[in-house]
Amino acid sequence: MFDPRIHRVLAAISARPNISLKELACLVDLSPSRLQHLFKRECRTSIKSFTLEVRLLKAASVLAESTIPIKQVCRDVGILDLSNFGRYFRKRYGISPGRYRKECRAATSTQLPLGIALPALQNIQRRANMIGLDDSNHIKKAAST
Known about the structure:
Elements: H1 4-15, H2 21-27, H3 32-43, H4 47-65, H5 70-76, H6 82-93, H7 97-110, H8 117-130, H9 137-144
Helix pairs in contact: 4-7, 8-9
């Protein structure tokens, strides 16, 4: 289906969401601009959009499963500015990172259905499935309660 180089790029982004375009281009022996063109043709989205999506999925997973400070989660996934991270997260999932974490904790501690975070969890799971990242078991568990 995809060019084999694109498979390597997708795997690299999924494994390390903070990888740079230059590193990705070196990985597949292409120039950054040629890689962007090929990626857009094959995936119908830009590398930047795809990488942001993966970063947000990884962040959602970490937020739900740990007590790592949000600022650190944001840095770990490759988004350096906390306010941008919050804006991206809210735009994608309709809930702030802090509220998402709070709702996930409440859901696991009381075993009650999620209130505000349920639509966000379903949205995150749908996006993960769309881009082939289906390793977020906590999302499946929480969304099914």
